[in-house]
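User: Hey, my collaborator sent me this sequence without any context and asked if I could get a structure. I don't really work with proteins. Can you help?
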Amino acid sequence: MAHCYKFAIVRLAPDDARDERLNIGAVILAEHGLDVRISRRLEKVRALSAAVDTSVLRELIENLKHLDERFRAAGIEVDARLKMISRIGPLSLSSAGTFVAEDINAYEDRVASLLKAMVDPEPAPFRAREKRSKLFTQVKALFRQERVLANKGEALDSHRIVPSYQLAEGLVADLVLRNGAMHVVETIDASGEEDSLNRAIGSIGVAALVLERARMEFGDKQTKARLVYNASASLEKIALPSLKAAEHQGAILTNWASADERARFVYALASLATPIERKRNRSFRPIEVPQTHKLKLWE
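Assistant: No problem. I've predicted the 3D structure and written it out in structure-token form, which is a compact way to encode the shape of the chain:
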């Protein structure tokens, strides 16, 4: 059965003279008493005052629950209880609002929505960071040489190879080409002496996760996954089971150290992409010599 809950936003005003306030939590009048929820980023209060001790502030917010329990035990009604705790030191409560929830799951969802919309700071926008490795740089250079690497700002509809394509938050594919199917490429560079086995296998695992996400995004049948790797002989031998596992999941493996495999890989993708047109040279126009500068050959 649906139940109506009253709530209020907890605000901090460390200095009344400056009239600055910050939403730092929420309180909900639940059946069992006051449900106190505190912002996950309480350190944001330092934007108002560097003198605020967040641990003391947290205790002060949680103390609202104990105060409400005392007033509730005394038989004081809900509205009166909210009014009595509406201003405690630097804390104040907003005017009361309501929401309806059918069960505990709906209740938690509504509370989470309240905190996200009114309390917690907005997360910084995700910025896709291009992988920095010697292998990735070499792969892009070859596709740029073939004039099939997308220019900055070009998307998949250019039908060129787009580098650092964001599939989901935190998951970025190294290269993606749309031409009928979706060709998704991940690169693994474990050629340096500093690369450890754990790092190499971890990179393969992340690449496999990216390729799996691509299948979810574009469809299993529409996704053509490729895994290009460059590893020292010792690491390749040890990491081979992980590479084979990625291959078993549908990825086409390319050993960058093999000239034949490298050439086949570059040709396979370059032949499917739309090349960038070459800049045409200006058409030749003969320079007209002024009449006064022409030689009089009959003189």
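In plain terms: The CA atoms of residues 277 and 286 lie 26 Å apart. You can pass these tokens on to your collaborator as they are.
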